[in-house]
Amino acid sequence: MTQITMALTKGRILKETLPLLKQVNIEPLEDIFTSRKLVFSTTRDDLRLLVLRGSDVPTYVQFGAADIGIAGKDGLLEHQGDGYYEPVDLGIARCKLMTAVPKGAEPYRGRVRVATKYINVARKYYAQQGRQVDLIKLYGAMELAPVLDLAHEIVDIVDTGNTLKANGLEPREHIADISSRVIVNKAAMKTKYPVIKDILDALAEVVSAS
Ligand code: AMP
After folding, report:
1. Which residues line ligand 1 (CB under 6 A)?
2. For residue range 167-207, what is the model confidence (pLDDT) as tens digits?
3. What is the Cα 43 distance to its own chain's centre?
4. If you measure from the C-alpha of residue 95 to the centroid of ligand 1, how many angstroms do you get, rounded to a whole number?
5. Residue 112 CA to ligand 1 centre (angstroms)
6. What domains, with CATH codes, occur in the chain?
7. DSSP β-bridge partners for residue 85
């Protein structure tokens, strides 16, 4: 039997992924949210689930440690990885990648400092705009950086905009629309094609029906 390993992104994406998987008859045998395990058997003998940080999902899939992954487009853009296909947009965990500045801020005239965890995305975006900026890598709480003058603006994910607002910031430029995608290791797509194709077709059908 061909064994498939599927890497899921924990957190918000996981909450929206599990109902989709259930619709294609893939269910973990234990409660993923309460267990401390990282690998889960499922109702399919031939499929196990990994629960990872979003930024690690493309890495596992790129190197074939997982055959299939589900990850946010933001992490995929930042990862800039090779070695996987991105065949299905699940349309879940939708949000936007945007720049944000203190509310009402005039454009800063000096060299702008931008705080973000999306260093690669930001570098590319500002280069395309022809703007020279200094990028500051942060791992979380980007909204704090302009408040404490660590940065003039940030690049971050915006959903409702409430987090920005609560910190006196407002969204400015739209960089990309984000949703969660299915990615597949390129070699696995060939060697495990029939099983992977069935899973992709089933997921695509659920997405188009919803
Ligand atoms: P909001 O206040 O609704 O704009 O949400 C903002 C915060 O929630 C962001 O800073 C993100 O950390 C997180 N967030 C919102 N949507 C997503 C998503 N689809 N995937 C991952 N994180 C998200």
Report:
1. 12, 72, 93, 95, 156-163
2. 999 999 999 999 999 999 999 999 999 999 999 999 999 99
3. 26
4. 7
5. 24
6. 4-93+179-209 (3.40.190.10), 95-177 (3.40.190.10)
7. 184
